[in-house]
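Note to self: keep these together.
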Amino acid sequence: MNNEFEIKNLVREKYAAIAEQSQLQNATSCCGATSTCSGQEVYNIMADDYTTLDGYNPDADLGLGCGLPTEFAKIKLGNTVIDLGSGAGNDAFIARRMVGENGKVLGIDFTEAMISKARENAEKLKFNNVEFRLGDIDDMPVTSNYADVIVSNCVLNLVPNKYKVISEIFRVLKPGGHFSISDIVLEGELPAKWKQVAELYAGCVSGAIQREVYLEIIETLGFKNVVIQKDKAITIPEDILANYLTREEIQTYKNGKTKITSITVYAEKPTLEDKNSCEPGNGCC
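Structure:
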């Protein structure tokens, strides 16, 4: 995992395999993305419960994610919504319930197996205003100023270039549009060896960046009214830690100051009337 190409291939391969698994199988791994987690308590170490939300479809729920961004996204009837890293369509179908028949939801994922699964689910549900498009979220196959709202659930940490993907979010949102994104961030440093473990990268852990850096990128790129809507501590069970650390290293990690958290962040793209409004990279931000 020495470059962006290798990292993306790793993530694509892992999530292609996940697309063929059941929700139960995926829930038994950290962020649903590894097969090495054995303890039953890992079922809920990151994922939140979607089952009570309107629009929930069990066939689209693979047990992935680390938050409920659609719950906080302030989606309105008639909105155009993009779901980044849409997987089998879980968040997209929740959003579709919120936008109604006159709105539109676009899911973007770079894993063909996930796109196929999401399209199959949409066809079974007979939804004609939900589309799933194959593509990288750091180079979206979408025109500028397209979406009213962008949501994403535990995906940005999987993208090597966070600055690029957040820049794309700014480009694709309409002026005055906003996002609500759940993601994993860090406080303190992870054990150095974790950064080279493929399963922990695909498992949404070792690709995460520092909380303050994450929020700084959002503000630097021109977003305003940045708010943390939810902040949830993530505890990795010892049976998972034991796959990567010795007993002594586990104690050092647990006694240290490193924190892994899931945060749901809301931010707005300035309107055209806002004198501070500008596109990133044109010299005014």
